[in-house]
Write a structure and sequence with these properties.
This protein is an alpha/beta fold. The protein contains two helices and 23 strands. The strands form five sheets. The chain has an eight-stranded mixed sheet with strand order 6-8-11-14-17-20-22-23, with no helix packed on it. A five-stranded parallel sheet has the order 7-10-13-16-19, with no helix packed on it. The chain has a five-stranded parallel sheet with strand order 9-12-15-18-21, with no helix packed on it.
Length: 220
Amino acid sequence: MRRAVRTLLLVTAGGLAREVATLEQATGRYERLLMSDDDPLLWGSKVAGVPVIGSIDRVGDLGDADLVVCAGSGTTRRALVARLDALGVPAERYARVVHPSVDVPPTCHVGAGTILLAHVTLTADVRLGRHVVAMPGATLTHDCVVEDFGTLCAGVSLGGGVHVGAAAYLGMNSCVREGLRVGEEAVLGMGAGLLSPLPAGETWVGLPARPAAVRVPVED
């Protein structure tokens, strides 16, 4: 009986997908990498050396492939996962992508579909939900929680016991004081320092962080 080729399908073909592809090419964990994206101009091309097989609806054609959703925005990841759910994709197909430089202590939990890029630090009793993305150099200290679809950009620092709500987005080099909560779908701007709780759906910027006059765009 012919053995199935171990395959990872990257859903979307943007910058995060190129980072994940580069990581997985270096580790050799998968024998084959593929991408899917709704942009027809990418179909049949290669991105980071990885073939783009067609739209996201093609996921159903690869029933034996592991999946990882590579959109930079948590709300976009959530919408894509809902779309894949409607296509009948089971939760167990989602892979965890963890850079070799990242140590995951036994007291920490990393949910399915989560991506941890180079030099992310988890100290003790950190819990990451499903489809979380932590960019290079993010630091999560003891008892931090990041709910499903949360995004921590490069250099984010979370003090002990910080709770990040579902699909919240923390911009590059932002930091959160210990014990605070960042609400669901909230945005903390690049370089901001959060010293008080950030309500759900709000965008705060600056040091110390305060509500922004307009919502900061989030990269998809």
